[in-house]
Design goal:
The protein is of the alpha+beta class. It contains 4 helices and 8 strands, in the order ββααβαβββββα. It is globular.
Length: 305
């Protein structure tokens, strides 16, 4: 029988859903996971080494004396992810990943709220008002949810569980118990470059306006063709040879006929890092880990009372 030990780890919050359950679709399997409360945390190496020790100790309790070696050689899947590899993958997808780079990442989860029920209500969330007194904490309610944000620092209360991965290999996972914010941090805000979208929009507006002016002139003065732009004389300094576009002869306009707007043009249209001693093989920087085992539903998840 494996002891259900609870402990905390410190790091920076990358993503969270501590107030409401959320579900996500696994990119590899396409499976939609059951709704759960979650915290994604980025940790420094000294903190993750403590977590590895706890995970290895659990493996020994679960699978015997060889569990330690099985964990550290990667035979047992670890829930610790290499942030540098995650950042590189996001960069290839055109997404920001600076918050992951150089860190180690864990994702803890639970289906149970603060009352131990698989229901809405959120997990227990605390805050240490004075960073110099981290033990003096106050509990936060939903109305204070803005205190917990992507980029703040805190300690995540977790416990370890195990399951069998779809590949048939044993794997470890982290169950979320509670969260306590300890420090403020720089907010993480996702950004994307949409400048080309607005450039296209400006071009579309120009086409519509120009076409509208020409159509208005033709409607007001049937048979009159607006003058073409005057070309710059060839040979002048900085001049570009100009070829005037052909001007179509306008058809007689029937004021009673419906007018259609002009059609808008179409829209324009890995890092190698030296291995770190003491790290499990499947989380070493520079070593590609197995596919993300996802978040299993285990009836042994820790209930928060």
């Amino acid at each position: 029988m494996v002891e259900k030990k609870r402990f905390t780890v410190f790091g920076r919050v990358i993503n969270h859903s501590v107030w409401e359950q959320e579900s996500y679709k696994d990119k590899v399997t396409g499976k939609v996971n059951p709704p759960a409360y979650k915290v994604e945390l980025a940790m420094e190496q000294d903190e993750v080494m403590k977590l590895h020790a706890e995970l290895a100790a659990y493996a020994v309790q679960k699978w015997g004396p060889t569990g330690n070696d099985l964990y550290y050689n990667g035979t047992i899947f670890s829930p610790v992810k290499d942030g540098t590899q995650m950042a590189a993958k996001l960069a290839m997808e055109g997404k920001p990943g600076d918050a992951y780079d150089g860190k180690f990442v864990i994702r803890s989860h639970t289906q149970f709220n603060r009352n131990g029920e698989n229901a809405p209500g959120g997990i227990q969330v605390f805050m240490a008002p004075d960073p110099n007194q981290p033990e003096a904490v106050v509990e936060l309610g939903f109305e204070q949810r803005d205190q917990i944000y992507r980029g703040c620092y805190g300690r995540v209360g977790i416990s370890i569980g195990d399951y069998v991965h779809s590949s048939g290999k044993n794997a470890l996972t982290l169950y979320l118990v509670a969260f306590c914010k300890t420090h403020e941090g720089e907010r993480i805000v996702g950004t994307s470059d949409h400048s080309t979208l607005f450039s296209a929009a400006r071009e579309n507006v120009a086409v519509v306006v120009t076409a509208g002016v020409i159509a208005g002139v033709q409607e007001a003065m049937p048979g009159v063709v607006p003058p073409a732009a005057t070309p710059m004389p060839v040979g002048m300094p900085g001049a570009v040879p100009f070829v005037a576009p052909p001007v179509a002869t306008p058809e007689p306009v029937n004021p009673a006929a419906p007018r259609m707007p002009p059609a808008a043009p179409g829209m324009p249209g890995g890092v190698v890092v030296s291995p770190t001693p003491g790290m499990p093989a499947n989380t070493m920087p520079g070593v590609v880990p197995p596919a993300d085992p996802g978040m299993p539903v285990d009836p042994r998840q820790v209930r928060v009372g």
